[in-house]
Write a structure and sequence with these properties.
11 helices, alpha+beta, 9 strands
Length: 357
């Protein structure tokens, strides 16, 4: 910590001038990646009261947070975070300012957005307030999806990757491995694994040809900060091309979002997204088909999430995500039952997940 403190003290001076002084440094709660975050309190003329320091993993000057995405025609020459930050800033998406970056020394210095995520903002408020804030999140999502796709840039890493059959199956296999086969106390037969793999293959084939646009990939209530009454995106380095329903499903179907997004409210927000996208010239010609892809995207993503949270618990020893697994499985059951052609998956999994019974 002493070395980091000295490093941040020097960088604060380099950014804000020699009169900038570091008052304190405290660790912030991290995310599911190997990055670490700190809040630095500062003083001095023209200096923000605080900044956030992103510390990159040791031994890697060019980390990618998701190993399944590290597939490029040419090796990346810059951090995905900085690559996406430049593009998103250029199209008017609100993201934290980058005050400075020193990849070789393993730190980025960012604007401090505070501690209020969208999830925190909608706790213990009337449903009208929940609706208003999620509509604001949808407005920002449409800027990313529509303007970002219209202004696509070959140098932006997001346009070099997309959700396709390979990536969908990677995530399904992640569920099979960590959500079933390696889960302590679970005995799953090869017959069940084979049957599920066949089902997942059909789902991936259904999703693979869907029209794709720019997506954040993890657009949920914990990755949207509320700062000065604006919705600000963080954790966007894994952006890629995907069906527009993917990010929408992520926003309305993540962790314990169900506790604030009731079924009627979800329907209103889906209608709001369709209406607003139409105003931007992106017409949803078949609402039923749109909603089917939305539900299938939510199902596919939740299978990935169940596998990922078990992986984080078992392999990375990050047990904090474990509490989100039961509500995710319950939502999986509900959404599978909303898709008649996939409802038979529920009894197949009921033996291994109490929440499916």
């Amino acid at each position: 910590m002493d070395d980091l403190t000295a490093l941040i003290r020097r960088k604060a001076g380099a950014i804000f001038g020699p009169r900038a002084e570091l008052v304190s440094l405290s660790a912030l709660a991290g995310d599911a990646s190997s990055r670490r975050y700190y809040r630095a309190r500062l003083t001095g003329p023209g200096t923000p009261q605080s900044i956030v320091v992103m510390q990159l993993p040791a031994g890697s000057s060019l980390p990618l947070s998701s190993e399944e995405l590290a597939i490029f025609k040419e090796a990346p020459t810059e951090l995905p975070f900085l690559n996406l930050h430049r593009f998103l800033t250029g199209i008017g998406v609100r993201v934290p300012a980058v005050y400075g970056h020193w990849e070789a020394e393993g730190i980025l210095v960012l604007e401090d957005l505070g501690d209020t995520a969208l999830w925190d903002r909608v706790q213990s408020v009337p449903e009208s307030e929940v609706l208003r804030w999620y509509q604001k999140a949808i407005d920002e999502l449409l800027v990313l999806q529509i303007r970002g796709t219209e202004q696509r840039d070959a140098s932006c890493m997001a346009f070099q990757q997309r959700f396709d059959f390979r990536l969908y199956m990677w995530e399904f296999e992640h569920f099979l491995e960590f959500g079933l086969q390696k889960r302590p106390g679970v005995r799953v037969t090869q017959r069940v694994i084979k049957e599920l793999r066949t089902i997942f293959t059909e789902m991936a084939k259904r999703l693979d040809p869907q029209p794709a646009c720019l997506n954040h990939r993890d657009y949920h209530s914990w990755n949207l900060m509320i700062h000065r009454e604006e919705v600000v995106l963080i954790d966007f380095q894994d952006a890629l091309l995907a069906p527009p329903q993917y990010d929408l499903a992520s926003l309305l179907n993540d962790r314990i979002t169900d506790s604030v997004i009731s079924a009627p409210l979800e329907e209103r927000l889906l209608s709001y997204y369709i209406q607003k996208s139409g105003e931007e010239g992106i017409s949803v010609k078949n609402r039923e088909q749109f909603l089917e892809t939305y539900l299938l995207s939510a199902v596919q993503r939740d299978f990935k999430v169940v596998g990922r949270f078990h992986y984080l618990d078992l392999v990375k020893r990050k047990s904090a995500y474990r509490k989100f697994i039961p509500p995710t499985v319950r939502r999986l059951k509900r959404n599978l039952q909303r898709l008649p052609q996939w409802a038979h998956v529920v009894p197949l999994l009921a033996e291994h997940f109490e929440e499916m019974r």
